[in-house]
Amino acid sequence: MDTMRDRFAPAVSRMLDEDPRVAVVVAEIGAAALDGARARHPDRVINVGIREQLLIGAGAGLALTGMRPVVHTFASFLVERPFEQVKLDLGHQDAGAVLVSAAASFDWPAGGFTHMAPGDVALLDTLDGWTVHVPGHPDEAETLLRHAVRPGDPSADGKVYVRLSVQANSTALPVDGERFLVVREGRCGVVLAVGPMLDAVLAATEGLDVTVLYATTVRPFDAAALRWSAEHATADVVLVEPYLAGTSTAAANDALADVPHRVLGLGVGRRELRRYGTVEEHVAAHGLDAGSLRERIGAFLAGGRVPVAG
Fold this sequence. Notes:
The protein is an alpha/beta fold. It folds into 2 domains: 4-163, 3-Layer(aba) Sandwich (Rossmann fold); 181-301, Rossmann fold. The chain is built from 12 helices and 12 strands. The protein has helices at residues 4-18, 35-40, 52-64, 75-80, 83-92, 120-124, 138-149, 198-204, 223-231, 249-255, 279-285, 290-301; strands at residues 22-26, 45-47, 68-74, 98-102, 130-133, 159-163, 181-184, 190-194, 211-215, 217-219, 236-244, 262-268. The chain has a 7-stranded mixed beta sheet, with helices on both faces. Strands 7-9-8-11-12 form a 5-stranded mixed beta sheet, with helices on both faces. Strand 5, helix 7 (138-149) and strand 6 (159-163) form a beta-alpha-beta unit. Helix 1 (4-18) packs parallel to helix 7 and helix 3 (52-64) packs parallel to helix 5 (83-92). The chain is globular. The relative contact order is 0.11. InterPro entries: PDH/Transketolase (IPR051157), THDP-binding (IPR029061), Transketo_C/PFOR_II (IPR009014), Transketolase-like_Pyr-bd (IPR005475). GO terms for molecular function: magnesium ion binding.
């Protein structure tokens, strides 16, 4: 199966062909994959070089002229390094852009901690008005990218973050860029799997009497879906996110503010893992493999003390 990032260049190239408002800005990373699109649209495919602050600034400038910019690089260079520009050039100026990341939390372990960004969604949570998509399959990535850019629809020029990953579920689901999906229904708790965590969550909860929700759009948070699920099951909620553990616990608590409930946030731990290893080894070290998830989810739902990875 190809990766989400493999789908990015062909998908955005088609959007460049469809809509003269669409522009793409990169900072060297991923530029070669857009050579064909650059040849057709030299004024709308821009490589600023290894200048991440300029990357965001150029995208914001294009947005202020009425363009719909798609800005792409690794997550650590797209959200963390130029965060001041994200905050001011886009947020303060109310300029809409689509930020599309790669490498996710630890997709390229050999790159070291400079190329990891498990805190990207939590960081964007400090700003107002962002939509955040976390696809779990390459097909979903294409769907959500198109939903974010919306070629031909200038009324939808908001601030959107699309988080691509090499981790993926085996099967795509019909995502709509808004709602959580009910994948399995049960009575003894709710487990919310975000993006590429779904396969591991389904394996971890096999045989357990729990509802499994699937989220690929996490901001805005679909409070109605979580409330509905909690009303039809014990209001014990486990969030399994592919980024910093606990990123969405506040959103879940707000959704259930008037309902007695408990929330457990599972995800990437704060402790830095200083050995490169493999993606699979990082998943296991953070307790996000199916076996570890089953132990931690089961202990929480049983009211016991949950082991904390890392």
